[in-house]
């Protein structure tokens, strides 16, 4: 079994899901009392917010180096937005990083879709680092058109979902945002923030939904047993 290092705490709420899904996946593969051999470096998300994501490379690099020095075989960044630095971190630490965007793109391509609606933090929706990974697999990516909508998703992810608060009014708004993406031609929806599945899921839609947390965890399990 390969050992993985999880850079979590971004936020701790979704890191709980990573630990749960990875261990469930490993046990399903190996049976008995088998579980994942892993280490978690849980960052203080308040430090990330104080610096803002775009200035947080050194915090993430420090976490990755701690995990590397502890003997991990690969690194997992437990947040879509953290992949802003995935390539640069991989170059620095000389360990593979299992990329959430790449794994999501593979899953969508395998399912036969070419146009995906993406919701996530404003960085994930507005910057190129994530969308380019999807476009490399021939996907057309749609994000909410209005700045105020993207800002609203950012605010609710940070102030509500990041602390585990589930607000029914926010859920209704997210459903409306997804409906608009579908009306614009989205064939499927990417829940491109690891906290968003806490609020909405496939159960809320008839259109296919790709939960990036679960997709990422499935890829991690595959890597660990390979």
Short account of what is shown:
Helix content is 51%, strand content 14%. The chain contains 10 helices and 7 strands. GO terms for molecular function: amino-acid racemase activity.
Describe it for me?
- By secondary structure, this protein is an alpha/beta fold.
- It folds into 2 domains: 108 residues, Rossmann fold (3-Layer(aba) Sandwich); 112 residues, Rossmann fold, CATH 3.40.50.1860.
- The protein contains 10 helices and 7 strands.
- The strands form 2 sheets. A 4-stranded parallel β-sheet has the order 5-4-6-7, with helices on both faces. Strands 2-1-3 form a 3-stranded parallel β-sheet, with helices on both faces.
- Strand 1, helix 1 and strand 2 form a beta-alpha-beta unit.
- Helix 5 runs parallel beside helix 7.
- The radius of gyration is 17 Å and the shape is globular.
- The model has no long low-confidence stretch (mean pLDDT 96).
- Belongs to the aspartate/glutamate racemases family.
- InterPro entries: Asp/Glu/hydantoin_racemase (IPR015942), Asp/Glu_race (IPR001920), Asp/Glu_racemase_AS_1 (IPR018187), Asp/Glu_racemase_AS_2 (IPR033134), Asp_race (IPR004380).
- GO terms for molecular function: amino-acid racemase activity.
- Keywords: Isomerase.
- This is Aspartate/glutamate racemase family protein.
